[in-house]
Write a structure and sequence with these properties.
With 180 residues, the protein is an alpha+beta fold. It is built from three helices and eleven strands; from the N terminus they run αββββββααβββββ.
Length: 180
């Protein structure tokens, strides 16, 4: 079974059974937690079928050290990614898998690499300082382009962020961030 298949099977089993969950790991010294709902859709390309994941999320830390929990609506953690320098782990109800970096993890799970380091800033409505960015054209649409992605802030005041990579296969990330 492929990594995508293992991940999808883990999510499906946990959602159907309702009792399988991943323990919440301890990650200390995080100043802020971003949480909300997240969906990632990878369009079909060539012989590869479309893939998607939707879940509640909780993101802590930064690009160097952090944790991302993906949960069911009832709060059971379906998958947890944890990272620190030299250590990237994906924990699912089926066990833990180690990766070289966050790009390798997202490529294995979704079939495409996601810019996890940039997501910390994108979810806050700003470009990541680690790469060049430019304002979206036309400027009437609030947002920016960075790392080959177009980040729309058109609904940012409603706590929605949409990021889209047009390079095949097209990848769309949508997040609704909880606000206090």
């Amino acid at each position: 079974m492929t990594g995508v298949g293992r991940f999808a099977a883990g999510i499906l089993c946990a959602a159907l059974v309702g009792c399988a969950s991943v323990p919440r790991g301890n990650v200390a010294d995080f100043n802020e937690t971003l949480s909300g709902r997240l969906s990632v859709k990878v369009d079909a390309a060539g012989s590869e079928p479309a893939r998607s994941v939707s879940a509640a999320f909780e993101l802590q830390g930064d690009a160097q050290r952090g944790r991302l929990n993906l949960s069911t609506p009832l709060g059971s953690v379906l998958a947890q990614a944890r990272w620190a320098p030299g250590d990237v782990v994906l924990a699912t109800p089926q066990g833990e898998t180690r990766f070289d970096d966050l790009d390798a993890l997202t490529r294995e799970v979704l079939g495409e690499s996601l810019p996890v380091a940039a997501l910390f800033d994108w979810l806050r409505g700003r470009p990541w300082p680690g790469a060049a960015s430019s304002a979206t054209v036309p400027p009437a649409e609030p947002g920016f382009e960075q790392l080959g992605w177009s980040v729309s802030l058109a609904r940012f005041d409603e706590a929605w962020i949409d990021a889209r990579r047009e390079q095949a296969p097209v990848v769309t990330v949508r997040a609704k961030v909880d606000r206090p």
